UniProtKB/TrEMBL annotation:
Region of interest (Disordered), residue spans: 26-73, 976-1002
Family to which the UniProt record says this protein belongs: Belongs to the glutamate synthase family.
Naturally occurring in which organism (per UniProt): Drosophila melanogaster (Fruit fly)
A GO BP entry: glutamate biosynthetic process
Low complexity: compositionally biased ranges: 55-67
Known cofactor(s): FMN; [3Fe-4S] cluster
The name this protein goes by in its record: glutamate synthase (ferredoxin)
EC numbers on record: 1.4.7.1
Gene name, Swiss-Prot/TrEMBL: Glts
EC class of the enzyme, as a word: oxidoreductase
SUPFAM superfamilies, A to Z: FMN-linked oxidoreductases (SSF51395), N-terminal nucleophile aminohydrolases (Ntn hydrolases) (SSF56235)
C-alpha cells in the first residue's frame, strides 16, 4: 500500500465510537531536535492522547485530582478551556415609564422560551448550556419571604440583594466571612435566605454540579446617598470575589445590587422558569427583564458562566480579548480614582481570572461606570465605538468624542450584540460591523421589546408605535428614571457635548508637528553612514545576518516596492515547519496566525473597508478614570510603519518635553549564548528604569548589529520580553514602544511584532535595500525615498488589514498586543518569558537554541570570508532547490510516480514511496511519530482487504477552475471505480455528470460542497450527493474568501456556476450566510431537508481551539467533520496567508478527537 498524502483528514463522527488507546512515541530523527516536540523523547505511558509534553501532563493530572464536581475539566491533552466560544439568544422587555407588573416577567418568559433554538443541549439532551433573567428587585415578594423568617426588610432602595452559588459543606463559613467583610466596609448584612428551587426541573448533567443558591440582603447605612451606597456594594462584591475564594470552596456572586437581581443557571430556557419558584410567584413584579439563552461550543458550560452577568448579557465574541485584558492589567499602574482613593488597589485585578470574553467585558464595563464619572452608556461607547475613522457623514463633535476615547482605551472588537442595564438604564449596542441581529418594537402600552430575532414576542400590529432594528455601531437606550426612550443620535450627541473633547484634541501630537518643531530645535543629524559600494544592495552582509534569502528579495520585497501590494502565491505550502527546518529560521516563522471559523465571522477587508482602520495613538496613556485633555497627549499615527527619517527624529525628539530612550539590543559575538540571554534581561531592566524615570518613548534598535563584532538579539524576543515585563511591573502604559529592526520585512513579521506589543515599526533594512535596488535600476530610478516609504507602508497596511480581517478584527488599535497567534515548536520556558499567554502545544525550541542559530547566522556572514558567503543564500523556502530546504512534493518523487503509473513500474513505485516518506519525515509532525514495536502483531486475516480500505479514501476538494475539467472528471471516475468518494469543491458540478451515468465510467462526485458563494448549488445538485459538505474555511488561506479572476471564467465554468463568462467570481469569507454556530446549525437542518439521505459534513481548518469548535458543530447535528491542514490546496492568496495561517492537521485531528471524547459527543 502506498502512503496516501491528503490535505484532509476525515473524522467519521457518525459511526466510530471513541477509539481504543494507542501509544505514540516521539522518535529522534537526525535533523530533529527531540526537544522541538517537547520532552526528552522517552516513551510516555499509553493513553489516547498525543503525549507531546510530559511535564504539562503531570501538572494536568495533579489539577484533575483536585477537580470539584462543579468545576469544568481543566487543561488536558490538547484541550484548553481558554478556547471556549459561545453564541446566544438575548432580549429584554422594559416598561419605559418604570411601572412594575408581573406581566413583564411572564412576557420575558415567552421571549426566553422562544429562543430555545439559540441555546444548545449537552450529551444528555436535557441540560442546557445556560439561561437566565435579570430583573428589578421584586420588593413585595422578598418582604413576604423574609417576614416568614421574622425579619423586616427596609424600604426598596435601602438595601442591596443578590444570589450566591455556594456548596453545602462550606456555605456557613463563607457566609460568616462575607458578613465580617461587609462589617469592615461599614455595611450590615440583614439576612440570608435559601432560594427556593425545584430540582426535578433540570437535566442530569446540571444536577451533578447544582449549587446551593443563597440570597443575601445588605442594609444601606443611614445618611449614605444612593450613588455612594452603590459604590460600597460594588467594593463589597469585588473584594469578596477576590478574598473569599478558597481551594475546594464554591463561591460565586451572580449579582449584588440595590436595583436588580439575577436568576440564572445551567438550564435550557424553559427549565429556568420551573427551577426557581420565585419566578412563578405573582408577587414578582418588575419594570424590566433581560433574558439570555446560551449556546456554548463546549459542553462544559457551568452554572457560573450563564448570563446575564452583573451589568450585561452578550451575544457574540470579543476577538481581541487577550490584548484587552493585558492592557487593562497594565493600566493598573497609571489609574487613580478620587472616588476610591487608596481603596482602588483592593479592586484589582479589574478582570478576574478564568472568565469568558463576556465575563471580562462585564468586569471592565462595571468598573468604568463605578470608578469614574462616566454613565453606563458612555462606558459602552468607549469600549464598543462606531466605525468613526472613515465615516465622512458623522457629526464632528461625535467624531472628536470617539477619537478622544481611542486615546483612552482600545476598542473591544468582534461581532457582538451587547445588552446592558444598571437598573436605571437598559439598552443595547451593536458592534461596528453590525454582525449580529437586533430588532425592537415599542407598543402603545409604552413597553419596549428588543430581541436577537423576530417572532419571539406576539404583539398585535395595531399596538406597535415604532418598529426598527439596530444598525452597526448604534445604541438603543431606555432611561426608566426620565421615563423615555433615547435614540442613538440624541444620546450620542449629548455624551459628545458633555466635555470639550474637540478642544482637548487640539493638544494631540502629529508627526508633522514633531518634524516642524525639530527643524527649528536641533541641527540636522548627518545621514546614516553610507555603506561602501561593495556592501550595498544584494551584497549587504546584514541581509544574510538577518536571514534574508534571494526569494525574500525577489518574490516578496520587490513586488511590494513596485506594485504597493504583496505578491500572490498558490498551490499550498509544502515546506517544513520552522521547528523542523535545517536553515536557522527567524523566530517569526514559529508563529501561525489564528482566524475565525464558525463561532464568529471573518470580514472582507476590501469590500468592507469602511470599518477598517490603521490609525492608532503612540506614547504614554493617562489615567483612564479621570477624563481630561491629558489623555490626548499622544502621537497620532495614521499607520504603524515609520520611515527612516521619522525614526531618527523620534529618537532625538524633545518636543513638548518628550524624551526617548534608545535600547540597544546588540551584544558582543564572543559573549556567546549566555550573552544573548543576558542581553534580553538587560533590555527588560533598562526599559523598566526608563519608564520609571519618565521617558515617553522606548526605541528598541538593532542598528549596531554587524559593527565591531556585535550580534543582535531577535527584535521579536526583545520586544515580547520587554512588553510582558512592563505589563507585570505595571509600567507598560507609561511608555510607547517603537521597534527599529532589520529583521522584520514581511507582512507576517510586522503582524507578529504588533501582536506582541510594538506601537510602531521601522524596518530600516528593507528600506535601505530598496534605495540600493533603485540605484541599481531594479526599481525605477525616478522613484524617490518618500515614494519608497509610502509604497511599502501601503503594501504592509493592506496585508495587515487582511490578517486582521481573517479574525474579524477591524482596527489596528485592537489588534496591537492581542497576541492572535499560536506558536508551533516553541518551548514553554521561552513562551513564558517572551510570549506569555500564547499557546504552544507541542513544546519545542528553547531560548538557547534560538541564540545559537542567531550566532550561527553571524558566523556564516562574518566568519570565514570565502567568495561563496558573499552571495545571498537561497535555501528554497518557496520553491524546491537541490540541497536546500526539504519539500513534501519534490521532483524525484513526482517523476517516480509518473514512471510507475505510465509504465506500471514497481521499482519506480518503491522509489516514490521511499522519497515521499522521507520528505514527510523532514517536513511534517506526523513524520516524527514512530510505530510502537513491542506489541503482539495482528494476524493478517483479521485485517480488512485493501479493496475495502480504499472505499474510505476521498479526494481533496478542488473545484474545476482551479484544476482542469479533464482532471476533475478523471478523479471522479477513479474514485467511483474503487468505491471511494471524490469531492466537487466549491465550483459546482454539471448535471450531465450525475444523471444517466454509465456505472463503470461515472463522473458523479459523491461529495458535493456548499460554500459561501453557493456556486452551482441547485436542488438537483443537493439531491444527487452522498455527502453534503459545508465549507467553513480552506486550508490554503483560512479566514479568506476564494476568487476566480474573470479571464479564467470560461463558458463551461460559467454554465456550471450559473454565471456569465468573463466575469470574476468571488466566494466571500463565510460570513454572508454563516456568522455564528446557530446559523451553521440552521444550514445543517436545511441541507438535511433538501437531501435526507445525505450525510452532512462540515469542513474546518486546524488551529488551536478547533476541537472546541468541532464539538459545537457536533451539537449543531453535523454527522461528519473534516479537519483540513495548513498546507492547503489549490487556492491563490497572498504568501502571508499561505505560509503563516492555519496549523498542521495532525494537531487539529488529535485535539478534535480528544475534545469530542471529553464532551461525550464522539459517538454522534
Amino acid at each position: 500500500m502506498a502512503p496516501t498524502i491528503t490535505d484532509n483528514c476525515e473524522f467519521e463522527c457518525a459511526t466510530v465510537e471513541a477509539t481504543t488507546t494507542s501509544a505514540i512515541t516521539i522518535g529522534d530523527s537526525d535533523n530533529f531536535d527531540s526537544s522541538a516536540i517537547g520532552g526528552s523523547g522517552d516513551n510516555f505511558e499509553e493513553s489516547n492522547e498525543l503525549h507531546l509534553n510530559g511535564q504539562q501532563d503531570q501538572d494536568v493530572q495533579e489539577e484533575q485530582q483536585q477537580q470539584m464536581p462543579w468545576e469544568a475539566p481543566g487543561k488536558q491533552g490538547l484541550y484548553d478551556p481558554q478556547n471556549e466560544h459561545e453564541a446566544c439568544g438575548v432580549g429584554f422587555i422594559v416598561a419605559i415609564d418604570g411601572k412594575r407588573s408581573h406581566k413583564i416577567l411572564r412576557d420575558a418568559q415567552t421571549l426566553s422560551e422562544r429562543m430555545n433554538h439559540r441555546g444548545a443541549c449537552a450529551c444528555d439532551n436535557d441540560t442546557g448550556d445556560g439561561a437566565g433573567v435579570l430583573a428589578s428587585i421584586p420588593h413585595g415578594l422578598y418582604s413576604k419571604a423574609l417576614a416568614k423568617q421574622g425579619v423586616t426588610l427596609p424600604e426598596l432602595g435601602d438595601y442591596a440583594t443578590g444570589i450566591f452559588y455556594l456548596d453545602e459543606a462550606q456555605h456557613a463559613a463563607a457566609e460568616k466571612e462575607f458578613d465580617d467583610l461587609a462589617k469592615s466596609l461599614g455595611l450590615e448584612v440583614i439576612a440570608w435566605r435559601t432560594v427556593p428551587s425545584n430540582q426535578s426541573a433540570i437535566g442530569v448533567v446540571a444536577r451533578k454540579s447544582e449549587p446551593l443558591s443563597r440570597q443575601v440582603f445588605v442594609r444601606r447605612p443611614a445618611g449614605s446617598d444612593e450613588k455612594a451606597f452603590e459604590r460600597q456594594v460594588f467594593v463589597l462584591r469585588k473584594r469578596a470575589s477576590h478574598e473569599l475564594i478558597k481551594p475546594g470552596r464554591r463561591f460565586y456572586i451572580c449579582s449584588l445590587s440595590d436595583r436588580t437581581v439575577v436568576y440564572k443557571g445551567l438550564f435550557t430556557s424553559d427549565q429556568l422558569w420551573d427551577y426557581y419558584t420565585d419566578l412563578k410567584d405573582p408577587e414578582f413584579e418588575t419594570y424590566l427583564a433581560l433574558v439570555h439563552t446560551r449556546f456554548s461550543t463546549n459542553t462544559f458550560p457551568s452554572w457560573e458562566r450563564a448570563h446575564p452577568l452583573r451589568v450585561l448579557a452578550h451575544n457574540g465574541e470579543i476577538n481581541t480579548l487577550r490584548g484587552n485584558v493585558n492592557l487593562m492589567k497594565a493600566r493598573e499602574g497609571v489609574m487613580q480614582s478620587d472616588l476610591f482613593g487608596d481603596q482602588l488597589k483592593k479592586l484589582y485585578p479589574v478582570v478576574e481570572p478564568n472568565l469568558s470574553d463576556s465575563g471580562s467585558f462585564d468586569c471592565v464595563l462595571e468598573f468604568l461606570t463605578m470608578a469614574s464619572d462616566r454613565s453606563l452608556p458612555e462606558s459602552v461607547m468607549t469600549m464598543v465605538p462606531e466605525a468613526w475613522q472613515n465615516d465622512k457623514t458623522m457629526p464632528q463633535e461625535k467624531r472628536d468624542f470617539y477619537q478622544w476615547a481611542a486615546c483612552v482605551m482600545e476598542p473591544w472588537d468582534g461581532p457582538a450584540l451587547i445588552s446592558f442595564t444598571d437598573g436605571r438604564y437598559i439598552g443595547a449596542v451593536l458592534d461596528r460591523n453590525g454582525l449580529r441581529p437586533s430588532r425592537f418594537y415599542v407598543t402603545k402600552e409604552n413597553v419596549l421589546v428588543m430581541a436577537s430575532e423576530v417572532g419571539v414576542y406576539d404583539v398585535d400590529p395595531s399596538q406597535v408605535t415604532l418598529k426598527s432594528r439596530l444598525k452597526p455601531g448604534r445604541m438603543l437606550l431606555v432611561d426608566t428614571k426620565e421615563k423615555k426612550l433615547i435614540q442613538d443620535i440624541e444620546l450620542k450627541a449629548k455624551i459628545a457635548k458633555s466635555r470639550p473633547h474637540s478642544e482637548w484634541l487640539q493638544q494631540k501630537i502629529t508627526l508633522d508637528e514633531i518634524r516642524n518643531a525639530n527643524v527649528l530645535n536641533t541641527p540636522p543629524v548627518d545621514e546614516l553612514a553610507k555603506l561602501p559600494a561593495s556592501e550595498r544592495g544584494i551584497f549587504d552582509p546584514r541581509l544574510s545576518l538577518f536571514g534574508y534569502s534571494t526569494e525574500t528579495v525577489n518574490m516578496l520585497l520587490i513586488p511590494m516596492f513596485k506594485n504597493k501590494k504583496e505578491a500572490l502565491g498558490s498551490m499550498g505550502n509544502d515546506a517544513p515547519l520552522a521547528c523542523l527546518s535545517n536553515f536557522q529560521p527567524i523566530p517569526y516563522e514559529y508563529f501561525k496566525q489564528l482566524f475565525a471559523q464558525v463561532t464568529n465571522p471573518p470580514i472582507d477587508p476590501f469590500r468592507e473597508k469602511v470599518v477598517m482602520s490603521m490609525q492608532c495613538p503612540l506614547g504614554p496613556e493617562a489615567n483612564l478614570l479621570q477624563p481630561s485633555a491629558q489623555q490626548v497627549h499622544r502621537i497620532w499615527l495614521t499607520n504603524p510603519i515609520l520611515s527612516i527619517p521619522d525614526t531618527q527624529l523620534l529618537k532625538r525628539n524633545t518636543h513638548r518635553g518628550w524624551r526617548t530612550k534608545v535600547l540597544d539590543i546588540t551584544f558582543q559575538y564572543n559573549e556567546g549564548v549566555q550573552g544573548y540571554i543576558d542581553a534580553i534581561d538587560r533590555i527588560c531592566r533598562e526599559g523598566y528604569a526608563a519608564a520609571q524615570a519618565g521617558y515617553q518613548l522606548l526605541v528598541i534598535s538593532d542598528r549596531g548589529a554587524g559593527i565591531d563584532g556585535k550580534v543582535a538579539v531577535s527584535a521579536l524576543l526583545a520586544l515580547g520580553a520587554l512588553h510582558h515585563h512592563l505589563i507585570e511591573t505595571l509600567q507598560r502604559m507609561k511608555v510607547g514602544i517603537v521597534v527599529e529592526t532589520a529583521e522584520a520585512r514581511e507582512v507576517h513579521h510586522i503582524c507578529v511584532l504588533l501582536g506582541y506589543g510594538a506601537d510602531a515599526i521601522c524596518p530600516y533594512l528593507a528600506f535601505e535595500l530598496a534605495q540600493a535596488l533603485r540605484d541599481d535600476g531594479v526599481i525605477a530610478p525616478e522613484v524617490n525615498d518618500k515614494q519608497i516609504y509610502a509604497a511599502y507602508a501601503q503594501a504592509i497596511d493592506t496585508g495587515i488589514a487582511k490578517v486582521m480581517a481573517k479574525m474579524g478584527i477591524s482596527t489596528l488599535q485592537s489588534y496591537k498586543s492581542a497576541q492572535i497567534f499560536e506558536a508551533v515548536g516553541l518551548g514553554s520556558d521561552l513562551v513564558a518569558k517572551c510570549f506569555r499567554g500564547t499557546q504552544s502545544r507541542i513544546g519545542g525550541v528553547t531560548l538557547e537554541i534560538l541564540a545559537k542559530e542567531g550566532l550561527q547566522r553571524y558566523q556564516l556572514t562574518y566568519g570565514k570570508a570565502t567568495p561563496d558567503t558573499r552571495i545571498l543564500r537561497n535555501p528554497g523556502q518557496y520553491h524546491w532547490r537541490h540541497g536546500g530546504e526539504a519539500h513534501i512534493n519534490e521532483p524525484s518523487s513526482i517523476g517516480s510516480l509518473q514512471e510507475a503509473a505510465v509504465n506500471k513500474n514497481l521499482d519506480a513505485f518503491e522509489a516514490f514511496k521511499k522519497t515521499t516518506l522521507d520528505s514527510v519525515k523532514k517536513c511534517a509532525l506526523r513524520g516524527q511519530l514512530e510505530f510502537v514495536t513491542d506489541r503482539q502483531s495482528i494476524d493478517i486475516s483479521e485485517v480488512e482487504p485493501a479493496s475495502e480500505i480504499v472505499k474510505r479514501f476521498a479526494t481533496g476538494a478542488m473545484s474545476f477552475g482551479s484544476i482542469s475539467l479533464e482532471a476533475h472528471q478523471t478523479l471522479s471516475i477513479t474514485m467511483n471505480r474503487i468505491g471511494g468518494k471524490s469531492n466537487t469543491g466549491e465550483g459546482g458540478e454539471d448535471s450531465d455528470r450525475y444523471l444517466n451515468q454509465d456505472p463503470n465510467n461515472s463522473r458523479r462526485s459523491a461529495i458535493k460542497q456548499v460554500a459561501s458563494g453557493r456556486f452551482g448549488v441547485t436542488a438537483s445538485y443537493l439531491a444527487n450527493a452522498d455527502d453534503l459538505q459545508i465549507k467553513m474555511a480552506q486550508g490554503a488561506k483560512p479566514g479568506e474568501g476564494g476568487e476566480l479572476p474573470g479571464y479564467k471564467v470560461t463558458k463551461d465554468i460559467a454554465k456550471t456556476r450559473k454565471s456569465v463568462p468573463g466575469v470574476g467570481l468571488i466566494s466571500p469569507p463565510p460570513h454572508h450566510d454563516i456568522y455564528s454556530i446557530e446559523d451553521l446549525a440552521e444550514l445543517i437542518y436545511d441541507l438535511k431537508c433538501s437531501n435526507p439521505n445525505a450525510r452532512i459534513s462540515v469542513k474546518l481548518v486546524s488551529e488551536v481551539g478547533v476541537g472546541v469548535v468541532a464539538s459545537g458543530v457536533a451539537k449543531g447535528k453535523a454527522e461528519h467533520i473534516v479537519i483540513s491542514g495548513h498546507d492547503g490546496g489549490t487556492g491563490a492568496s497572498s504568501w502571508t496567508g499561505i505560509k503563516n495561517a492555519g496549523l498542521p492537521w495532525e494537531l487539529g485531528v488529535a485535539e478534535t478527537h480528544q475534545v469530542l471524547v471529553l464532551n461525550n459527543l464522539r459517538s454522534r
